[in-house]
Amino acid sequence: MAPRTERRADALSKAKIVEAAIAILDADGEAALTFRALAARLSTGAGAIYWHVADKNDLLAAAADDIVAQVMAKIPAEAEPRAAIRAMALNVFEAVDAHPWVGAQFFRDPSRPAALRILEGVGRQLHALGVPEAAQFDTATALVSYILGVAGQNAANARQARESGRTDRSAFLGEIADRWAALDPEQHPFVRRMAAQLRDHGDRAQFLAGVDLILAGAASLIG
Fold first, then answer.
1. Which of 3, 78, 102, 187 yields a CA-CA distance of 20 to 30 A from 123?
2. Helices (H), the chain
3. Distance of CA 199 to the CA centre of its chain
4. pLDDT of 185-216, one tens digit each?
5. Same structural domain for residues 9 and 88?
6. Are 4 and 92 in a shared domain?
7. CA atoms within a 13 Å half-sphere pointing along the CA-CB vector of 14
8. How far apart, in whole angstroms, are the C-alpha atoms of residue 148 and residue 2?
9. What is the CATH number for 31?
């Protein structure tokens, strides 16, 4: 006889399903998230899970939204607009670094709740900052595209480094910097000059510098 699955005694909720899904995603990535694995982790049947989520895409969207909701909740309500945007950006950057699977979710469908939360948060702060309404859409989408794009690329770089066994960030960047420094000076004069900065740069500091550049452009639009 097949062994019986131990069933949970407490009520199953969407929040508990999402929490379990995030644990699987963080531990083993998107490929490991199946309804069978989720049901086993929750000590329930797949049918009970389908009562709360339609399919895997729905579950991924809910998991990403949960992470972003936590990010947005960390922004101090009294923060002035520029500081709020910087904090929001850095929190998203760090959330994607901690949960690499989140990055891919932002680009699957921009109408999903997670992406909308970030766009709404950035847009409200730009409005509070005094950016003219005619420029708010362009400024908000530029900021959000930068935030999500760089955060996703940083997570991808970290994953690639882990998979190749190169976990020493300084050594990894040093190797790239050495290759940049050895390039033909006539074909790549700029890249050669930037080799030293690549070797010593901080990912978060560089990321925030980009946010500040966009915000400086936005500030120039304020009359």
1. 102
2. 14-28, 35-42, 46-50, 56-73, 81-98, 101-108, 113-129, 133-163, 169-181, 189-193, 195-200, 203-219
3. 24
4. 999 999 999 999 998 888 999 999 999 999 99
5. no
6. no
7. 14
8. 46
9. 1.10.10.60
User: CA of 181: how far to CAs of 39, 169, 196, 207, in Å?
Assistant: 53, 18, 8, 23
Residue 80 in domain: yes
Mean pLDDT calculated for residue range 125-148: 96
- Looking at per-residue pLDDT, the higher value among 171 and 41 belongs to 41
Judgement on whether residues 204 and 128 belong to the same structural domain of the protein: yes
Instruction: Judge whether 58 and 17 are in contact, CB under 8 Å.
Output: no
What would the pLDDT profile of 62-100 be if each residue is shown by its tens digit? 999 999 999 999 999 899 999 999 999 999 999 999 998
HSE (side-chain half, CA atoms, 13 Å) at 89: 31
Q: What pTM was estimated for this model as a whole?
A: 0.86
211: domain range? 76-219
